[in-house]
Structures are given as C-alpha cells and as structure tokens.
Amino acid sequence: MPPPSDIVKVAVEWPGANAQLLEIDQKRPLASIIKEVCDGWSLPNPEYYTLRYADGPQLYITEQTRCDIKNGTILQLAVSPSRAARQLMERIQSHSMEVRLDAMKELAKLSADVTFATEFINMEGITVLTRLVESGTKLLSHYSEMLAFTLTAFLELMDHGIVSWDMVSITFIKQIAGYVSQPMVDVSILQRSLAILESMVLNSQTLYQKIAEEITVGQLISHLQVSNQEIQTYAIALINALFLKAPEDKRQEMANSFAQKHLRSIILNHVIRGNRPIKTEMAHQLYVLQVLTFNLLEERMMTKMDPNDQAQRDIIFELRRIAFDAESDSNTIPGSGTEKRKAMYTKDYKMLGFTNHINPAMDFTQTPPGMLALDNMLYLAKFHQDTYIRIVLENSSREDKHECPFGRSAIELTRMLCEILQVGELPNEGRNDYHPMFFTHDRAFEELFAICIQLLNKTWKEMRATAEDFNKVMQVVREQITRALPSKPNSLDQFKSKLRSLSYSEILRLRQSERMSQDDFQSPPIVELREKIQPEILELIKQQRLNRLCEGSSFRKIGNRRRQERFWYCRLALNHKVLHYGDLEDNAQGEVTFESLQEKNEAAAAGLGEHPDPRGAAAHPQGAEQLRLRVPLRLTGAAARPGGPSRCAAVPGLLRRRLAAVRLLYEFE
C-alpha cells in the first residue's frame, strides 16, 4: 500500500553522526520535526537549528517551501538563519584576517538564500558591507580575495530586492567605478564590479545618472579586447544597460560615441570572430545590443513627412535627379512653363513608382515606416547608385502592368523589415538570436534594405507579376527573408547568397514539401475529421467493391506454355454468397448471365467477405473495424474438383491463377 501523500521519506545528516532516516509528516509543524531530529542526536536548544538541502545551493527549508521536499531527498541539520547571520556578522568584523576571510566566503555562499538574506539585512548587514568597500583599505594579505567575496555577498543580497538600490552612497559608486577603470585589477573583482554597476543602472534612474558620470565608453570598450569572455559579457551588459536607460535625446549621442570608439568592429573582431564559442549569456547580450541599435531607427520610422517642408521635398527631388540625371532647377529647361514642369515631374514620379504622382511626399505620411523609407531610398541612390538607377530604369521600360513600382516597393519593404527586426520593441529576456552580419557594417539596416530591394525586383520578374500581384510578391519576399535569417550568415554577402538560392521556384517547392509533411496531416483538426468520416468512406468503398464484383469481369486464359488462349469470366452473386465463373468463347462485351457460368463456389468458403483489419483496430480504440474484401488464392468446395469432397479439396492450378488475378484487381487494403 503506498504511503499517504503527506508523508515524505528523507535522510537527515549532521557532521560526525550517522544519518537519520525520517518520515516527515507535512501536516506537522516544522519546529516539532526539527526537535525530533535534534533529540535523535541529543542536541539541546532545537530552536537554534533548522533544516536545509544537502545538495545544490543548500537552501533553507521554511514552512512556505517545505512542500518542495521530495521522497529520497537528503537534508542537513544546520544552524538557523538568524543565528548564522548573527555569527557571521561578528566574524566579518573580527580583527583576525583569516577569520574575516572565512566568514566572508561563507557569507557569499549563504547570501543566495532569501531566508538568510532577510535575517542578515535586518541586522544592517548591507551597511556593514558597503563600509568595508568604501574604506578601500588594502590589507597586506588576502585583500583581493576578501574584496571579491565581499562584492559577491553584496550583489547576492541586493538581488533579492529586499532593499532599494537607491540607498547606495556616491562614495560606494565611485569605489566600484574605480575598480572598472583601473588598468590592472583582479578578474573576480572586475567581474563583480561590472555586475553591480549593471544592476544599479537597471534598478535606479538616479543611480544611472551618477554612474554615467563616472564610467566612460572607452573604459568599457577596453574590457572587450581581453580574452576572458565573462568579462566581455559583463562589459557588454553594462553598455546595454546604459544604452537602455539613457534618455531618448542621449541615445543617439551614445551611438555616435560608440561609432567613434569603433565599438562594432571591436565586438566583431574580439567577440564574434574570436577563437571561443559564443556562450548563451553572451549571445543574449549581443542580441540586446542589436535590438537597441535598431531601435534608434524608431524615431524616423514614426515621423511623418511634412509635405510643406522644403528640406524633405528636396530629398525627393534628389531621388529624381539621380535616377534621370535631371536638374530640378527650372532654369535648365529653356522656355519651360509651370504646367510643363509639373507634367514632367509627374511623369518622372510615376516612373519612380510613387503612388501619388502629383505630390509623392504624401506617400511618406503613413507610419510606420514614415521618413525611414525615404532615408533608405536616398541611401540606396547615393551609396548604391548603379543599383538604384538600374532598378528604376528597368521597371520604367516595362509595360505598365508589369512594372515593379520602386517607390511603393521601397516603402512597403521598409515597413516589412521593421516588423521582422521588431524595430521599436524592447529586448526579450528569453532570446539570444543575434545576427553576426549586422555587426559587419555601421549602416547595417540600410545595407539590408539595399540587398532586399534587389531581391524584391528579382522575385517580381520571376513571378511575372503585375500591379495586382503586389501583395503576393511582398508575401514571397517576406518568406525569403525570414527563411534566410535563421541561418545567421556571417556577412551581408553570405546573406545575399542565401537569398539568391531562395528563388521563387524554390519557395514554391518548400511550400509544397511542407504541406505534404506528416505534421500537417497529423494535426488535431485533420485527425478528428479523418476519424469522423472514415467509417462512412470505408462503407462506401465496401459497397463499390461489392458492386464491381457483382458486375464481374473477363480475364484471358493462360495456357501451360504461358500462351493466351480463350477468356474466362467471374462474378459475385447478388446476395454476395456465391462466386460464379466459367469459360467464354470470346471476350464478353456485355453482361454475362449467371446461367451461362457453369461453375460456382460459396463466397464464404472462398474467404470472400468481411474481415477485421488489425490496423483499423489500432486506429480506433473503441473497437471500430475496417472492412476489406479479399479473394483468396485457394478455394474449397465442390467446384474445386469434380466428384471430390466438398470442403477440403485443393483448387486446380489454373483456377487458382484465375482467382489470384481477381484478387489483385479487387483487393482493398
């Protein structure tokens, strides 16, 4: 008989004593269980003790967490959290350096437990630790080790969120920032200092201002050029925290500072292309930096074009000038009047593929993508001029219905890229899908646009699309991009090659392959539909097969030397009980009557009838049976051998071959 669910069997250990095997009743108070354990080892004052896990982080067991104890768990009897906190508080302030170091090691370990942390913080433990750091006394021995454990304990205690980070003093901040800026500092101290600064920035806007004044971009970038990936990870994490918490008007300034300090190329060469594999936490931080960098585009993405702003209108004029090598100045057109210029502009804007030919500025009033689309178009025209001119002129020379409108395509493509890259959204804590190719260029988004607009033009031609197919083309282009990104190309050129392999015909092939996959056919709705209609379909097939057998069919007669001779005919009686068969003088063109067929045999004796299919039983737990019809290779009955026993005679070889042919034609599996 299994034990009650409230009873948990555990082992309890105590240094220097044999372990106790205990059945814990979860309904009993924890204090009474601890007293029972102490009595087993004759330990006085059970209120000084508690239970904790022997493995892992060795967390204390409380009334709130005792439900997590499983059968077979090994526990330890330990000093209670309040007593342990009091003892450690005394030891870390001891005059003996060895005592203080041992106490700080134990404190760093116990601080991960929220029960102990609460007791230690209530004794002003945080204040004691910050004073130890602020004093900055470089003791003659064990200073670095002592400081590393102190910072570890401080960080663990603060991470519980019991006290606010705002209680940290400016002196403490300066001291921690000093460890980050020092050229030669112990790796453990540097790692914990970077982690503490990151937590301060993320948890307090006030502390962000103070830390931003103490830490420079150059100091953090220098830590990316080391060989220790842990230090690199914490450095990028702090950069991300400063970037994330910076006011909107300061973020672009920070990005410019990163560019001046070559942050992107340093990350590319020392982190992404380093000799070490990228760990999960580093991948997450690179993903966060990628998202924050793209989020700088949000302002332009959400900015509508002002049709009355001459500076913005000049950008459209510049696009026209580059495409058609035309001067916007009316003085270059001798004798041109206002109406003539307007007509010429309208024609050019139509060739550029704008929806509004009269005033193309109206095409950029929808957000997203807003002015970001115009920025991308201008970038393409200036930095990929040959590509820009080729796309515009190539499409303007096609028939109207087959031209790919560049302006409309560029606007829609920019919106699509913003959606795919989630521009404007905060980083997701659970994601780490950074793309190395975005760290290979300072204008990665614009370069991505330049590649994808060429892809769009190529796909348009492959689909032989017309204006009515615009949305279909954009769907295919989205699929091409989203299929290429997961391969995480190392460079933009590799991404371009991947897109080249994903032609329209390849997309169609992939779609067809995925539609035919078993996963689609095994989806719950399809399985439910199959189970619902299968009995009806099987019954229909059964009736069709029986009707066909009742109609009968003729077969060529095969002689002993494999020569085709006369015909023979076989059909099932209308009552489905008897098989009629016999030789024919010639191939039957119409119905052959039962009377003209001299031989017959009982269908049941021949094995023709309803048989349960084991596969059907497996598919239908309720016991529903699939029905199938079989014509056997062997018959028994009077017709098997004239004058022989009616139920056991063997069928002659010729008849057996004939019925085998019937079986091959009519068997339903």
From TrEMBL:
InterPro entries xref list: ARM-like (IPR011989), ARM-type_fold (IPR016024), ELMO_ARM (IPR024574), ELMO_dom (IPR006816), ELMO_domain-containing (IPR050868), PH-like_dom_sf (IPR011993), PH_domain (IPR001849)
GO MF terms held by the record: SH3 domain binding
Superkingdom of the source species: Eukaryota
Residue intervals of the ELMO domain: 311-485
PROSITE patterns (UniProt xref): ELMO
SUPFAM superfamilies (UniProt xref): ARM repeat (SSF48371)
GO biological process terms held by the UniProt record: apoptotic process; phagocytosis
Keywords for the protein's UniProt record, in alphabetical order: Apoptosis, Phagocytosis, SH3-binding
PANTHER family: ENGULFMENT AND CELL MOTILITY (PTHR12771), ENGULFMENT AND CELL MOTILITY PROTEIN 2 (PTHR12771:SF8)
General function of this protein: Involved in cytoskeletal rearrangements required for phagocytosis of apoptotic cells and cell motility. Acts in association with DOCK1 and CRK. Was initially proposed to be required in complex with DOCK1 to activate Rac Rho small GTPases. May enhance the guanine nucleotide exchange factor (GEF) activity of DOCK1.
Protein known as: Engulfment and cell motility 2
Organismal lineage: Eukaryota, Metazoa, Chordata, Craniata, Vertebrata
